[in-house]
Amino acid sequence: MPIFKFIQSFIIGLSVIICFTIVACSNTSEQRVATPKVEHPVAPTKEKDTKTTNLANEKPKPDSTTKSSKPIRVLLTGDSMIGCLFFPLRKLNKEKKYKFIYSPWYGSTSKDWAMSDTLEKLLTKYKPDYVFFTIGANELLYYKITSRKKYYDTIITQLKDHKYIFVGAPNWKPASDYYTMLKELVPTEQLFDSENMILKRRKDGAHPTYEAGFEWTDSLNLWLGTHSAYRDELYVQ
């Protein structure tokens, strides 16, 4: 039986060794320093860019360097002849590019305008971009026109700081002295010469008929777009 006891003792001893080994491994595992968990920094949440959003929702402001979309303001004034241009110009203005302001002084003469502040008040009140002015129809029959040159000179002086067109009266009688005087006072590209236009007249023998007013206006409009100082700005259509 000694062999049996020896085997029994060997098995017991081996069991003890195995137990100690397991315990030792367990302790070693517990004492091992754990590898620290690396926490990657989380990128901060991007807040909503309200400024950018607001800008995107805003309507673009018009560029100050671009042309204004407002209608071009044109003051039509002088004596009653200007009315023969007003209605045709409004009808031609299909694109609504212009706003025509009608303010005549019926029966007026060059002296009336020169000796009053009427023109100055109209310019201040309406602040026009352009002025169409006509005078002289009421003087062709009654005065030696050249004697009134000083009044015309005063009117032109009042207009000189504005963009203006002096529309010569559509004479129904010879008016060479009248136009000679105007050509001495008004730059060529700002004077529309209506001399000797063949226009049908109303019963008063002076004012063009409604239809003739359109003929006069068509001639003026063509000249504005081809020969006037403002040919790139004034052509009604």
CATH architectural designation of one domain: 3-Layer(aba) Sandwich
Shape field: globular
Taking all residues together, what is the mean pLDDT? 78
Q: Alpha-carbon distance between the termini?
A: 135 Å
Strand arrangement, major sheet: 2-1-3-4-5
Outline the structure in words:
This protein has 237 residues and is of the alpha/beta class. The protein has a domain of 155 residues: 3-Layer(aba) Sandwich (Rossmann fold), CATH 3.40.50. Helices cover 42% and strands 11% of the residues. A 5-stranded parallel sheet has the order 2-1-3-4-5, with helices on both faces. Strand 1, helix 3 and strand 2 form a beta-alpha-beta unit. Helix 3 crosses helix 8.
Would you kindly provide a brief summary of this structure?
With 237 residues, the chain is α/β, with parallel strands linked by helices.
Q: How is the topology of this model organized?
A:
Elements (H helix, E strand, L loop, with lengths): L1 H30 L18 H8 L14 E7 L4 H10 L5 E7 L5 H5 L3 H9 L3 E5 L14 H11 L4 E4 L8 H10 L5 E2 L17 H17 L11
Parallel strand pairs: 1-2, 1-3, 3-4, 4-5
Helix pairs in contact: 3-8
